[in-house]
């Protein structure tokens, strides 16, 4: 087995704030069948060590950023996890990066420590195991490629969302084990600050993003968010590799949270819709759309209220599950008040409820202004809950919009709208109604969507091929 170390700030099922955790948790299993042994290093946040099986200390330090630390090796499922146990850095209330919406003041040191130990493991190995390549994820681990840039060990960094850049004051250089010479245009300097994401982009042997379209988008200012010049500089080393989903967890034929159904028999889906309407106190004659999302500007939540009235007037309905910005939560709750029986809202997140919503919904709305890959639309396709998506990033890469050409070719799997504004979303929703009214065409689209394969096998194969190339080039 070839050996790869994955370094990340979160991983399903140990800790999750977004899609990054899903990818980090899924890749080891997907790669195992292709001859790769991937071990994952993450911080030992509060509660993480309790979830590791047969854990043991494989590395110790008397002083890691001010206090003792150790690296605990254990297993989650079939994956070997290296959890950096440094209570002074990670054992605290709140999320991985903040508490009550306020970032931890020592995030620079917390994630520099993770990167430092990961680089040491890459150089020296651990407990008889030494990786041939290191895969870093997002800003939290951007310093890993930087620390390893002269080691001869190949590195990859994946950009899951370029909006988060790991920016810290120049005064943090020494605390992050960086030298004054590193603080330059071709180094970690970014508009007068340190950017750990830029450090990774400059130093890694290869850069991946989580969809081909997002890779292209990042070269433009509207999506690159100040780092487009760096992406352009590294364009030859840039690879867009779509995320996948866990098709064992997301499988409508065996999902314990719903009445099972398949592309060959949709009876269970009809029962799920009736149950979902009851759960949200809805009575909808037309298509029932769902929204499962962080309620933020990036997700296009502000577009929904001005776009949805014609859809509701045509008999459509909307069930919402999510939380986020107060204005967005208030906007969704206001819709439910204004349109009782047609709009239902639950603030928060409930994993089993999300399964019931995909199982019973006719369509899932994803009106994001930018979306590196997106998993929501993939779950929708898997469950015959047709996506209505903006033509950005991974949404455009995975949903085939209904048009005269795609309908004639029997290829359409959803509705794609452009530009990303309320008028385009409104027209997309009215197109959804028209599609729904042609029942034979609708059922054909649902079956087609469900037959798409968005598992991890293809993507893992691309990662494996990239690792092979980088290792060969380093020899």
What does this structure look like?
- The chain is of the alpha/beta class.
- It has two domains: 262 residues, Rossmann fold, CATH 3.40.50; 184 residues, Rossmann fold (3-Layer(aba) Sandwich), CATH 3.40.50.
- It is 38% helix and 21% strand.
- It is built from 19 helices and 20 strands.
- The strands form four sheets. A nine-stranded mixed sheet has the order 3-4-5-2-1-8-9-13-14, sandwiched between helices. The protein has a six-stranded parallel sheet with strand order 17-16-15-18-19-20, with helices on both faces. Strands 10-12-11 form a three-stranded antiparallel sheet.
- Strand 16, helix 12 and strand 17 form a beta-alpha-beta unit.
Which range does the strand content fall in?
15-25%
Low-pLDDT stretches: none
Largest sheet report: 9 strands, mixed
CATH architectural label of the largest domain: 3-Layer(aba) Sandwich
Predict the CATH topology of the largest domain. Answer: Rossmann fold
- Overall 3D form: globular
The CATH superfamily of the largest domain is identified as Glycogen Phosphorylase B
Portion of residues within helices: 25-40%
Which strand order do you get reading across the main beta sheet?
A: 3-4-5-2-1-8-9-13-14
Number of domains: 2
Q: How many H/I helical runs?
A: 19
Mean of residue pLDDT values: 96
Radius of gyration: 23 Å
N- to C-terminal distance: 17 Å
**Any idea of the CATH class of the largest domain?**
Alpha Beta
